[in-house]
Amino acid sequence: MSPSHNTIRNPSKFLSLKQCAWNNPDLTQVGQDIYDFLNVTPTKSQGWKRRVVSVEIKSDHMYSPKEVGAVLSVSYDTATRIMGRMRRIANLARPRAKKRLLRIKGSDLRAYIEDKLER
User: Fold this and answer.
1) What would you report as the CA-atom Rg of the chain, rounded to the nearest whole angstrom?
2) Which residues have a Cβ under 8 Å from the Cβ of 79 and sit 6 or more positions away?
3) Environment class of residue 59 by beta-carbon count within 10 Å: exposed (0-12), middle (13-18) or buried (19+)?
4) Directed axis angle between helix 65-72 and helix 76-85, to 10°?
5) For a Cys staple, 107 with which of 51, 59, 90, 91, CB 3.0–4.6 Å?
6) Mean pLDDT across 59-77
7) Where are the domains of the chain?
8) DSSP strand E in 1-57: where?
9) Residues contacting residue 29 through CB under 8 Å, at least 6 positions apart
């Protein structure tokens, strides 16, 4: 009778490995392989994180956090945090609203960028 598919077979009979190598792998080499696999250094700089978009800043336009993020090359959340620290922002939300509706004038945004460049 042929053995059922549920029986456990000894892999050393089927593989061409030495018995001592099968039972005692070199743990330092295995550990180093795992470490090298997990800690791969990036070969390229992470260009996908940069949001390089040339945006013309109009001094009389009111900019949303999405547009500020495009100008400053940051994410929406970061733009919201930056706008929260800026002077002269407008919160256009209703007084009891849970979310803010932030807007900043283009001239104030340009002044913020110039101030950052001077530092």
Assistant:
1) 30
2) 65, 66, 68, 69, 72
3) exposed
4) 100
5) 59
6) 89
7) 50-118
8) none
9) none
Residues 95 and 102: beta-carbon distance below 8 Å: no
Q: Is the pLDDT of residue 15 over 50?
A: no
| pLDDT higher than 60, residue 52 | no
Degrees to nearest 5, angle at CA 10 with 9 and 16:
125
- Helix (H) / strand (E) element for 95: namely none
Whole-angstrom distance, CA of residue 2 vs CA of residue 74: 65
Residue pointed to by tokens 């960028």: 113
- pTM for this model (two decimals): 0.53
